[in-house]
Every structure is written in structure tokens, then in C-alpha cells.
């Protein structure tokens, strides 16, 4: 899934980038790729792994009472939470979602479920590779503590990630300006959509690129003089959804998840 993010994610559209040259300073000054950012990503990964381990460890006594606390069952539960967290994290980090980014996340879940069905739940493959894994997924899906872990892991992590994201924006002027610029663009796109369809949708979930040919009529002709390639090859034009930490729906989900955990 992260490969689709690398191919299709956009902080802002090409037109917004051209209209706001200050955004290019992040590349020149190495603000997004430096030692501090790498350490921040590593600490985030360690924090996520600790949350997964802690929740799984707290569920272990209940799993032991149900007879699914062996090495293979508990390990499969932990790995399932890891796969779930990986896909959640990709969805959280990605800003411009389209059918490819969403499709790769769904494909990751589908492939993992097929793996759990074909390998551990098939006698032939289980006997060849690991007999102790036979029917482990079936036993897990019948255990309530496993489903509690599946819910609790993303619920806890989304609260932590939202808190750190909002805190980061308060401390980092550049990230705060970028977030405000994104919100302004989303509101503008929402008004354009309302003009075309007669319906006012939520500005934080809006299809971003215009129809093919529409942007060419309004494109800033000065972009060619500045040496910025705004062609379809250089700028992805797929329809998609904005996804940003400023979303009211994401904050609401985070709040509801916290209430349920409490």
C-alpha cells in the first residue's frame, strides 16, 4: 500500500504549488527529509509496536482462559494487529486518496485473509509447512479477546496519532500553514462542486481533480515560464478524496473511539 502512496499522494495540487512558491522551501532546506524527521518516524514505529504488544499482552490472560494462548495463536493475533496497523497508518499518512491507494489497502487485507484461509486452514499446506498452525485462524475468530484487540489497536493509535499531528502543527509553523492552505483549497473545491451540482457537500471529503480538459482552460500559463511541468504525466490527475488531519469526521471517529475504550 505504501507504494501507491509514493506514486499518487499530493500535498497540494500543481496549481496551488505554483501559486504558493514558499512551499518549495521544504525541498531546498531539507525540512521533510533530515535526521530529525527520520528519528521521528522511527520513534513513531517503536511507539506503534509497543501499543500493539501492550494490548495483545493485556488480552493474553483472557485468551488463555479460552484455550487460544499458545505460541501460534497469540503470534497470529499479534501479527494480525500489525497488518491492521500498517494499513491504517498508510491511510492516515496519505493525503490524496484515489482508487489505487484505497484499492491497494483493500487488496492487502484480502491477500492476508486468503493467506489465513489457504495456509493454516488447509490440512495439506499446514502439514507441509507448520502442522501447529492448522485451524489457528478459525479458533481465533471465535475468541472475543482477539476481536477486542482488532478494535482496540487502531482506536488507541488513531487517538495518539491525531494528538501528535495537532501538536506538531501547533509547534511547526510550516506544517500549520500547509494545513490551513489545504483547508482553504478544500473549501474552494466544495463551493465549485456545489455550483456544478447544486449540492453543498462536506469540504473535507471532496473529489479533487477537475474533469479532463477543464484545468487546461484555467491553467496558469506562467507555469511554463517557470519550468514547472504540469502535464498529466508529471501531475497525477486521478479523481480522489482529500484526507487530512483537519477532517472533522476523523476527529469525531477519534473521539468516539476514545469513549468506547474508556
What order do the helices and strands come in, and which of them pair?
Layout: H1 2-8, H2 14-19, H3 25-28, H4 35-65, H5 71-93, E1 96-98, H6 99-118, H7 123-129, H8 136-141, H9 144-171, H10 173-197, H11 214-218, H12 222-225, E2 240-242, H13 248-261
Helix pairs in contact: 4-5, 4-9, 5-6, 5-9, 9-10, 9-13
Supply the key terms.
69% helix; 262 residues; two-stranded antiparallel sheet; 13 helices; mainly alpha; elongated
Characterise this structure.
The protein is an all-alpha fold and 262 residues long. It is built from 13 helices and two strands; from the N terminus they run H-H-H-H-H-E-H-H-H-H-H-H-H-E-H. The protein has a two-stranded antiparallel sheet. The longest helix is centred in the first third of the chain and has 31 residues. It is elongated and about 60 Å long. About 10% of the residues have low confidence.
* Spatial strand sequence of the major β-sheet: 1-2
| Rg (CA only) | 22 Å
The gross shape turns out to be elongated
Q: Can you summarize the main beta sheet?
A: 2 strands, antiparallel
Briefly characterize the structure.
The protein has 262 residues and is mainly α. It has 13 helices and two strands, in the order αααααβαααααααβα.
Amino acid at each position: 500500500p505504501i507504494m501507491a502512496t509514493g506514486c499518487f499522494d499530493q500535498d497540494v495540487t500543481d496549481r496551488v504549488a505554483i501559486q504558493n512558491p514558499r512551499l518549495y522551501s521544504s525541498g531546498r532546506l531539507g525540512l521533510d527529509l533530515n535526521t530529525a524527521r527520520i528519528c521521528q518516524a522511527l520513534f513513531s514505529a517503536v511507539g506503534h509496536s509497543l501499543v500493539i504488544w501492550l494490548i495483545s499482552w493485556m488480552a493474553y490472560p483472557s485468551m488463555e482462559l479460552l484455550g487460544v494462548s499458545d505460541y501460534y495463536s497469540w503470534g497470529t493475533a499479534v501479527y494480525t494487529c500489525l497488518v491492521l496497523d500498517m494499513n491504517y497508518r498508510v491511510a492516515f499518512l496519505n493525503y490524496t486518496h484515489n482508487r489505487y491507494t484505497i484499492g491497494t489497502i483493500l487488496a492487502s487485507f484480502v491477500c492476508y485473509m486468503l493467506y489465513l484461509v489457504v495456509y493454516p486452514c488447509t490440512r495439506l499446506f499446514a502439514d507441509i509447512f507448520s502442522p501447529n498452525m492448522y485451524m489457528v485462524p478459525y479458533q481465533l475468530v471465535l475468541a472475543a479477546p482477539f476481536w477486542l484487540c482488532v478494535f482496540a489497536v487502531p482506536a488507541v493509535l488513531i487517538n495518539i496519532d491525531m494528538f501528535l499531528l495537532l501538536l506538531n502543527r501547533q509547534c511547526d509553523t510550516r506544517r500549520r500553514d500547509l494545513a490551513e492552505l489545504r483547508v482553504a483549497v478544500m473549501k474552494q473545491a466544495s463551493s465549485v462542486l456545489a455550483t456544478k451540482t447544486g449540492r453543498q457537500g462536506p469540504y473535507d471529503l471532496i473529489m479533487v481533480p477537475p474533469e479532463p480538459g477543464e484545468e487546461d482552460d484555467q491553467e496558469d500559463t506562467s507555469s511554463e515560464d517557470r519550468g514547472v511541468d504540469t502535464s498529466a504525466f508529471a501531475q497525477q490527475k486521478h479523481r480522489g478524496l482529500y484526507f487530512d488531519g483537519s477532517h472533522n469526521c476523523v476527529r469525531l471517529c477519534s473521539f468516539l473511539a476514545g469513549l468506547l475504550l474508556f
